[in-house]
Design goal:
The complex is a heterodimer of chains A (110) and B (113). Chain A is mainly beta and 110 residues long. Helix content of chain A is 0%, strand content 58%. Chain A starts with a strand and ends with a strand. The chains are: A mainly beta (110), B mainly beta (113).
Chain lengths: 110, 113
Amino acid sequence: SQQGEEDPQALSIQEGENATMNCSYKTSINNLQWYRQNSGRGLVHLILIRSNEREKHSGRLRVTLDTSKKSSSLLITASRAADTASYFCATGGGGNKLTFGTGTQLKVEL
Amino acid sequence: EAGVAQSPRYKIIEKRQSVAFWCNPISGHATLYWYQQILGQGPKLLIQFQNNGVVDDSQLPKDRFSAERLKGVDSTLKIQPAKLEDSAVYLCASSLSPGNEQYFGPGTRLTVT
């Protein structure tokens, strides 16, 4: 079963704009991870945020986590055409099992 | 550092046939995972190994799917007999230990006709 649900399902923006994707989940977690998937490079880990953290940065990526609302957001700043991909949140729970969401398809147009 | 290797990359079989996929994780990674990704969905964990032991196989359809990691390094996933709904990409991933970042292989795209 899918734990996380990403919103929106699809997002189309212009190069240079920021992209925000949201993830909601249902049960308590140990950590939440974001992954990117495109045809060229497969599924790639982007960032991991632990349940006791509220915000994390990595390059042009900013992730927030609100455990009281059971939600997370991924912000990509100054987007590039190469950011075009599907983005998945994955929740790490008991036994460190990862459960992936349904994904957001991001398209960055020139 | 070499990534996670998988083979074959593509496989087409008829229903009721059998198929096997192979995965070689990153050297030193104790934890190995097999996921099934159906088109338009996120990956679903089928089985998780810690060294050569099974940690979680709760979502593995055990009547037709089997997996092994005999020496705690590479792994095989087998489907016998295949059904049409098994058409998907089968992803292998590895990590140093459970809960850490997972590194994924390129996947095997299976089509069952």
